[in-house]
Write a structure and sequence with these properties.
Layout: E1 6-10, E2 14-19, H1 38-46, E3 51-52, E4 61-67, H2 70-81, E5 86-94, E6 100-104, E7 127-138, E8 148-157, H3 164-171, H4 185-195, E9 202-210, E10 217-221, H5 226-234, H6 243-246
Parallel strand pairs: 4-9
Antiparallel strand pairs: 1-2, 2-4, 3-4, 5-8, 5-9, 6-7, 7-8, 9-10
Domain Pseudouridine synthase RsuA/RluA-like: 13-171
Protein name: tRNA pseudouridine synthase C
InterPro entries: PsdUridine_synth_cat_dom_sf, PsdUridine_synth_RsuA/RluA, RluA_PseudoU_synthase
Length: 249
């Protein structure tokens, strides 16, 4: 049985939870593994049906919003469509990231590798702002250099394309640690072996949106798990982590 999900906010209309890394939001057609599903887990936890509002990749952790009725779901989906929701992510990436990057780089949707002869789709606008919060160099040769460098970054996607942050960071040559699709396998393996990190280091740490009925602005913080805090402490990033997260430690 899956443990209960941490609830960040709940009222009669909607609920926001802190999704663990590795948990699917809903079961896909090709998902044959006996893995916990967020929709099913939360439905059993609350004793009522829940309606997804937006996506969060399986390996991404953090804040995700679900509606408690179909009308609220429609109102919330519209906020995502018109891009009034502010989403903030933390990530650990390879290399030294510049202080600020505004990336406007259009992308076609990822190709479904399970489909036979998939048809290419047109590119879509994709915009992300990146901010470097901290950097570290360790005296370990992992790739082709005698030292290895990493950055703690914050990402603010302005559009909502599939795998947008992950693909944008790959394009910038700063892939996310633990990203088995777009990342660097040697660095991911090092974090597994030496830092007990078995997850992708991309976390949706803050979500801000307008309540569909009260019109109040909600700003919700999803705490980091033990793996994240261990890496933050090891790399000396406790002073640069967003203060809202420190308060939820």
């Amino acid at each position: 049985m899956c443990s209960e999900l941490a609830i960040l906010y709940q009222d009669e209309y909607l609920v926001v939870v802190n999704k663990p890394a590795g948990m699917l939001v809903h079961r896909g057609e090709r998902d044959s593994e006996n893995r916990p599903i967020l929709l099913q887990t939360l439905r059993e936890q609350l004793g009522q049906r829940v309606y997804p509002v937006h996506r969060l990749d399986r390996m991404t952790s953090g804040a995700i919003t679900l509606a408690l009725n179909s009308e609220t779901a429609s109102l919330m989906v519209e906020q995502w469509r018109v891009r009034t929701v502010e989403k903030r992510y933390l990530a650990v990436v390879r290399g030294y990231m510049p202080d600020e990057v505004h990336l406007d780089y259009a992308m076609a949707p990822p190709i479904d590798k399970f489909k036979k002869n998939p048809k290419p789709k047109p590119v879509q606008e994709a915009i992300t702002d990146f901010y470097c919060l901290g950097q570290v160099e360790i005296p370990v040769e992992i790739d082709k250099y005698p030292q290895s460098r990493y950055s703690l970054i914050e990402a603010l996607p302005k559009t909502g394309r599939k795998h947008q942050i992950r693909r944008h960071l790959k394009h910038l040559s700063h892939p996310i640690i633990g990203d088995t699709r777009y990342g660097k396998g040697k660095h991911t393996q090092y974090f597994r072996d030496h830092m007990a990190c078995n997850q992708m280091l991309l976390h949706a740490w803050q979500l801000s949106f307008q309540h569909p009925y009260s019109k109040q602005t909600l700003s919700l913080t999803a705490p980091l798990n033990h793996t994240w805090w261990s890496i933050v402490q090891t790399f000396g990033w406790t002073e640069v982590i967003p203060q809202a997260l420190v308060g939820h430690r």
